């Protein structure tokens, strides 16, 4: 069905309600990540494989995606096979706790689950994708520390409150914020998401802001359009 696919400029993503559909968070993260010098990339909680495909479009790295959800892995593998970069992307069915890569990664990305309330999505797969029942903040921080090379970088997007918690966890493990992008829906609203870049080097983070719409629905800001123009058909 038409709603089962989201079409970008250079690839198409099949997504299903039972896992997670393509959303603004994932596109923002994929567009923001600087991967031009990366050679080995890991996407933790890959879902549909969106981030793997977005990064493959703009770099020549070997890319691995992992997900605990078997249906997500099936969908991600399909999306990769239909793309122009299938020879560089491999999807694994695994939790981060049990994943054992052969080597470290110089770039790690994740659009993790973040709902921590007791109200869990009714479908098991969607619950895993939306709630941190299988990948909580501590587990993700530990995984990034384990899998990241000594001079590597990692990127994650979280709601602002969870991002602060995530930074506290990563600092315990020797990972520090290098840059933060504070994302708001509109110019006059609080930021609701933070995209954070981290490395093993302790430094003063470079901070920036982005609002998605100017105020009216679908009146997208120039900064948002510039960031995502290589992907969205409408830009």
Write up this protein.
With 235 residues, this protein is an alpha/beta fold. It has one domain (2-176): 3-Layer(aba) Sandwich (Rossmann fold), CATH 3.40.50. Helices cover 29% and strands 27% of the residues. The protein has helices at residues 24-32, 50-58, 70-81, 124-130, 137-147, 160-172, 222-228; strands at 5-7, 12-14, 40-44, 62-67, 89-93, 105-110, 148-159, 176-184, 191-199, 206-211. The strands form two sheets. Strands 5-4-3-6-7-9-8-10 form an eight-stranded mixed β-sheet. Strands 1-2 form a two-stranded antiparallel ribbon.
Structural class: alpha/beta
Radius of gyration: 17 Å
| CATH architecture descriptor | 3-Layer(aba) Sandwich
Unreliable stretches, pLDDT < 50, 5 or more residues?
115-133
Percentage of β-strand residues: 25-35%
Number of strands: 10
Strand order of the largest sheet: 5-4-3-6-7-9-8-10
Tell me about the biggest sheet? 8 strands, mixed
In CATH terms, the superfamily is: Vaccinia Virus protein VP39
What is the CATH class designation?
Alpha Beta
Order of helices and strands: EEHEHEHEEHHEHEEEH
Mean pLDDT: 90
């Amino acid at each position: 069905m038409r709603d089962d696919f989201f079409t970008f400029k250079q690839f198409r993503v099949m997504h299903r309600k039972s896992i997670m559909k393509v959303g603004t968070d994932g596109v923002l993260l994929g567009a923001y990540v600087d991967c031009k010098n990366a050679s080995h990339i890991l996407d933790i909680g890959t879902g549909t494989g969106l981030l793997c495909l977005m990064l493959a479009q703009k770099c020549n790295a070997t890319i691995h995606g992992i997900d605990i959800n078997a249906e997500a892995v099936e969908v991600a593998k399909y999306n990769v096979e239909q793309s122009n970069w299938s020879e560089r992307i491999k999807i694994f069915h695994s939790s981060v706790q049990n994943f054992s890569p052969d080597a470290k990664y110089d770039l790690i990305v994740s659009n993790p689950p973040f709902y921590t309330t007791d109200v869990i999505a009714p479908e098991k797969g969607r619950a895993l994708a939306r709630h941190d029942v299988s990948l909580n903040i501590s587990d993700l921080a530990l995984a990034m520390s384990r899998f990241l090379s000594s001079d590597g970088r990692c990127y994650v997007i979280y709601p602002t409150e969870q991002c602060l918690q995530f930074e506290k966890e990563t600092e315990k493990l020797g990972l520090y914020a290098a840059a933060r992008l504070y994302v708001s829906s509109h110019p006059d609203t609080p930021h609701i998401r933070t995209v954070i870049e981290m490395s093993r080097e302790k430094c003063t983070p470079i901070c920036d802001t982005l609002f998605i719409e100017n105020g009216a629905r679908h009146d997208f800001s120039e900064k948002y359009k510039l960031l995502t123009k290589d992907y969205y058909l409408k830009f």
